[in-house]
Amino acid sequence: MQFLQNNLLTLLIFLPTGGAVLTLLAKNRDAARWTALATTLVTLALSLVLLITFKTNFGAVQMVQEGDWIPAFNIKYKVGIDGLSLPLVLLSTFICALAAIASWNIEKMTRGYFALFLFLETGILGTFLAIDFFLFYVFFEVTLLPMYFLIGIWGGPRKEYAAIKFFLYTLVGSIALLIVLIGTHLYTKDAATGLGSFDLVKLPLLIKAAIANGSMSMDVVRWFFVLAMICFLIKVPAVPFHTWLPDAHVEAPTAMSMILAALLLKMGGYGIFRVAYPLFSDAGRELWMIVAFVGVLSILYGALCAMAQTDFKRLVAYSSVSHMGFVVLGAAMMTKTAANGALFMMIAHGITSAMLFFIVGVAYDRAHHREISRFGGLATTMPVYFGLSAIGIFANLGLPGLCGFIGEIMVLLGSFEAAKPGSILIQSGAASTRQIYPFAVSACLGVVLTAAYMLWTIQRVYFGPERAEYRGFKEVDSREQVVLWPLAVMALLLGILPTLFVFSYTDSTVETLFKLFR
Amino acid sequence: MNIVAAAIGRPYIPGWTDLGPFVAEGWLIVTVVGLLLAPFFARRRNLACFLVALAGLTAALISLLWVGVPAPGRAPLRGILIADSFALLWKAMLIVFTVGVLFLWRSTTASEMREGDGPEFFTLLIGATLGMSLMASTTNLLMIVMAVELASLPSYVLAGFRKTHRLGAEASLKYVLFGAGCSALMIYALTFLYGMYGTLDLGAIARQVQGGAHAHPALLTIAFFGLIAGVGFKIAAVPFHFWCPDVFEGASVEVTAFLSVASKGAGLVLLLRVLMTFADAMEYRAAQPLVALAYAVGILGAITATVGNTAAFAQNNIKRLLAYSSIAHAGYMMCAVSLLFNLNGHQTDAASGVNAPAQVLLFYLTVYLFMNLGAFAVAALVYRATGSEDISAFNGLVKRNPVLAHAMMACMISLIGLPPFAGFVAKLNLMLVLMNNGGGWWILVAVIAVNSIASAFYYFRVLRAIYLEPAGADQPAFAGHPLGVALAAGSGLALVLMLVLASPVSALTRHYARMQGIGGAAATPATKPVVTVSAAP
C-alpha cells in the first residue's frame, strides 16, 4: 500500500505504456481490444485512488515523487498533483476508458491502433502530472506522434492532410515553448550551482526574484509570456490559430475525436494555468486585453462558424473552439471565480464534447454521411439515441442543471467581477472597469449564439418527419450505450454537484495560484 | 650520410611515450597492410577483407580505450599530434561508426560486389578512417593538411566505387574536382599563416596573434577564409556543399552513410579544435579577430542549416534528402563551433577544463551518429528490396517490414529533434548553451528553432510514405538482411535509450570535452614549435 501511495502517479503515467506493449504482443484483434480496455480500466481505477489520497485543502502540489534525470541541467523526473491537475487526470482516465470502448469497431491494424492509443494516454497523463518543466514538455510533445498516426492511418478521406496540419501547427507552438523552456532555465540560474531551474513549483518565485533584482527585464517576461501563450493557444485552439482543429476532427476516427476534443485541447488550457500565467503573471496582467480579446473572439467567431457548418462533425468541432474560448477568457480575467470557471469549463467540455463526437459517430456509422441537411426525424427512428443526444446537446449549450452551464456562468461572473474595484486587473492599474465590460458583455452574447446553433441542430437532425431512408436504422446498441450513459450521468452530476466534483479540488489550488498573481 | 645528418641536425626518433597514445592509429595502419595481404591467403577475398577490417577496427577500439589519454602537460611527438580526451571520444565514436558501416556493407552491397574488389574497398575505407581520426588530433598546419588529404583522397575513390554506375562516376569526379579546389585554397591560405608567423603550430600562432604580432588583417582574413573553406568542404557547409547531394546519391549507401557522419564529424572536430585554440589564446574575449571568426562561423552555420533544410523539400531521392538533412545538421553543429567568445565568462571551465562547445558538439555527434546510421541502414535495405531510392519505395513499409518502419520513424523524429528520441536532448543541449552565451546567439537559437519546424515537412514525407501510403502491388513484404535489420533496430533503440539515459551520455561527453592545451587545469605549457626546416626569417 505504501509502495502504491509513493509511486501512484508514476504508475498511473506508465501503466498505459505497459498496456501498449502487451497490446502489441496480443495474438489477435480481440485480445488486443480487451488488453487495451483492461489497461484503461485499471488506469481509471488507479486514478480513483487519487480521490482518497488527495488532500483537498492542501493547495500546493502533493504526492510529489522526484528523482534526478539529467543533473547536468538540473532536469528532474518530478511528478505531483494538485487541484489543477486532479480533475483533468480523472477526466483523462475516464474518457480514455470510454474511448477504448468507442474504438471497438476498428478493424484496420487493430493492435497498432490500440498501442498508439495507450501511448497517447501516457502522454496525456504525463502532461497533467509533470511538475518539471522539461518533463512536461517531453510529455506534451509525446502526444503529437501517436495522434499524427491515429489520424493519418485510421482517419477519413483527407487524413494525410489533416494529420500533418495538426502536427505542424502544434509543432510551431512547441518550438515556441521550447524557447521559453530554455529561457526560463537560463534566467533562473542559481548563483551557487550555476544551474537554472525547471521546477514548475519554484519557477514562479525564481522568476519573480529575477525580475525584482533586474536580471530579467519586463520585455523578456513579455516575450516569454507571448511565446508560451502562442503554444497553448494553438493547442486550445483559439482563433486565429484554430484552423487545424476542424480538419483534424473531421478526419479523425470517432474515438480520436473524443480524445482530441476532451483531452488534447485541455492540455492547452492546462498549460495556460500551469505555465503561462504562474510563471509570467506580470506579463499576463499587462497583456490581459489581448488574451481576453482572443478569448472573446474565439467564443463568438467559433459560434458563428459552427452555425454556418453543414457537416455535423465540423459543427461540433467549431463549438469546441467557442467553448474553449471561455477557458481563455477565464484565464485572462484573473479572478478566482473566472479561473475556477475556466477549470470547470475544461472538465465540462471534456464530458460534453466527447459525448457529442460520439453521437456524431453513431449517426455516421449508420448513415455514412454527416450532412446535417440530409438528416431529419432521427428522434422518431431512434428515441433512445435522441434522448441521450439531447442530454449531450443541452449540456453543451449550457442548460442550467447540466455541466455546461456552471462553467460558462462562472467565467462570465468572474469577468464581471474583474471589472469591480479590488480585482487584480483593476488594482494593478492594468485595466479599467470600462475596458473590461465590453469583453464580459460580448462573451454573454456567445451563450446566446451557442443556444441558437445547438437548438437549430437538434431541430434539423432529430425533429421533423421520419425519413424513409433512415427508417431501417438500428437503435443505439449496448456498446454505444455503455459509452453514452456514463457521459450523460457525469454531465448531469457535474451540473448538479459542481463543488463536490470539481471546486472542492480546484479551490485551494486556485487560491495558491492567485497568491502568485498579486 | 654524415653530411645529410649534420644538415638536419640530430634526427628525431619518437619513442614509446610519444607513440603510445596513437596505438589505435597504428592498428589502423596495420589493418591496411593486412587488407592488402589478406587476398593472397583467402579464396573469398571480400569476406576475408571484411573480417580483417572488423578485427583491425576492434583492435583499434580496444587499444584506444586501453591506452587512454596521456597525463596533461605532455605533448607527444613534439606537439605535432595531440592526444586528449576530446580526440579520444571522437576516435571511439568514429571507429564504432565505421564498424556499423562495415555491417551495413555486409548486409547490402556485399552480395553484389565483384569478388576481388573487397581489398581495395576496405583499404580505402580504413585509410579514410585513419585520416579522419588524425584530423581530430592535431593543431599543426602541416598535419592538418596531411590528415584532411588522407581522409579525402580515399573518399573520392569510395564515392565512385559503384564502377558500373553512371552516377557513381559523376559523383566521384565532382567530388575530386571540388575537393581539389578547396584543398588548394586551404593549403594556399595556410602558407600565409606560416609565412606571417614562422611556425606551423597553431597554438603558437594564436599566442602571437594575441600578443599583437603585426599581421596584415587582409592576410589574416585570407588565411582564415582558406582554412574554413578547406574544413567547410569536409563538413559540406554552404557554400562548399555542392558536391554533397550528388556524391551522396551516386555513392553506394554504406559509403554515403560513412561520409555523412565520419567525414562531417571529423571536419567539425577539426574546426572546433582549431578555432578553440585561437579562442583560448585570446581568453574568449570579444576582440578581433575572434569576433569576426565567431560571426563568420555562426552565420555560415545558420545559412548552412537553412539552405540544407530548404533544399531538402524538393528531394524525391531518399539519399539526396538525407544529404540535405545532413547539411542542415552540420549547420546546427557549426553553430556550436561559433561559440568562440563568451560574454558571461570562459567557454572552458577553469577548474575542470571542460570546454562547453566541445561538449555540445560531442553530444550532438553521438546522437547524430545513430540517427544517420539507422536512417541509412533502412534506406539501404529498402533499396536492396526494391531497387529504388525514391521515397515512394518506402510506401507501406509498416506493413512490409514493421521493424524497419519503426526504426526509420525513430530516426526521422529524432532528426527533427522531438521527444521521445535523443535528437531532442542533443538539440536542447545545443540551444541551451547557445542561449546561455549571451550576446547575439539567441538569433542562432531562433534560426535552429525555425529550421526544426521546417525540417518536419520533409522528414514527414518519409513517414507519410511509410505509414500512410498503401504499398503498391509491386512492393511485397521483405525480410531484409538480419544484420542490417539489427543495425537499424539497434539505432532506433539507442535513440530512445539516449533520451532516457541522457544523464550518463551527457556526463560522458562532459568528461571528454577537454582539450590538450586549452584552458583549465589541463592546460599545457607552451609547446616548442616543431619545425625542423629552418624557420622563416
Protein described:
The complex is a heterodimer of chains A (518) and B (537). In chain A, 75% of the residues lie in helices and 3% in strands. Chain A is mainly alpha-helical and 518 residues long. In chain A, strands 1-2 form a two-stranded antiparallel ribbon. The radius of gyration of chain A is 22 Å and the shape is globular. Chain B is built from 21 helices and no strands. Chain B has helices spanning 2-8, 16-19, 23-37, 45-67, 85-107, 118-135, 141-159, 166-197, 202-210, 217-235, 243-250, 253-281, 290-312, 318-337, 356-386, 397-400, 402-416, 422-436, 441-468, 482-500, 502-512. In chain B, α6 (118-135) packs antiparallel against α7 (141-159), α13 packs parallel to α19 and α18 packs across α20. The two termini of chain B are 28 Å apart. In chain B, 62% of the residues are buried. The chains are: A mainly alpha (518), B mainly alpha (537).
